[in-house]
Specification:
Length: 239
């Protein structure tokens, strides 16, 4: 079964300290769960022996048959669907592969956007000189992100935006916002030093998830507003 990663990848050879924050159960039936993952927690175990603690291992303590069809990066918080049966695993995997699901993110980015909405089309490829990072590369895989301004944050010289990844490339949201000139605050990989230090965590949260129930055929939609604003520091350049 192919595992679809709709957001970011992370260097699983690094030792990552897991958060003590608990995951939240938002929905449960006999086929699947929908949970809210905290930031600083891997979705699945990393390859490093020290990275065994993860969302999946924690969920399986209560739901032993839970499995993964998509991931969120270690630094990213937000919604995930976890199938509980083989039928649900197969059906939901196909939905992700065929882009029949819809996932929306909220992010706080540096600066104020000049346009209230738009689309970033920038091909992405691995950066061989800075592994495991990626880069904008015209010879890379086509990548597309829709963005929409939700709120300006002048006291932080920042903007709250909604992001929709049309494609699901590694580090897509981070790189596309950087390419737009508005890096995600707190991004340890791609933000400039000032933007990196302006938040104590990556300001990226998967806040909305919609998919079709594998048995009933009903479209299920879930939302979980981000609670990451306490991690946002005032801009040192703010008046």
């Amino acid at each position: 079964m192919q595992l679809i990663d709709m957001t970011d990848s992370f260097d699983e050879l690094a030792v990552l300290t897991p958060t003590t924050d608990a995951w939240q159960l938002l929905y449960q039936d006999e086929q699947l769960l929908v949970v809210n993952k905290p930031a600083r927690l891997l979705t699945v175990p990393g390859r490093h022996p020290a990275n065994r603690d993860c969302l999946l291992s924690r969920v399986q303590q209560e739901f032993p048959t839970a499995s993964i069809v998509h991931r969120l990066d270690y630094d990213t918080s937000g919604l995930l669907v976890l199938p509980l049966t083989k039928k649900a695993l197969s059906a939901i995997s196909i939905q992700f592969q065929q882009r029949q699901t819809k996932k929306l993110y909220q992010a706080v980015v540096a600066g104020e956007l000049s346009q209230s909405s738009g689309q970033v089309n920038a091909a992405l490829a691995p950066d061989p000189e800075h592994r495991p990072l990626y880069k904008v590369d015209p010879n890379g895989k086509a990548s597309q992100t829709n963005y929409r301004l939700l709120q300006t944050l002048p006291e932080h010289q920042a903007s709250l935006v909604e992001l929709e990844p049309v494609t699901g490339r590694s580090h897509q949201l981070r790189l596309h916002m950087k390419a737009l000139g508005h890096a995600i605050l707190g991004d340890p990989f791609y933000a400039d030093p000032e933007s990196k230090q302006q938040a104590s965590r990556l300001m990226l949260h998967a806040w909305s998830l919609s998919f079709t129930h594998p048995l009933t055929g009903k479209v299920l939609s879930f939302q979980a507003e981000p609670d990451f604003f306490s991690a946002l520091a005032e801009s040192p350049c703010a008046p």
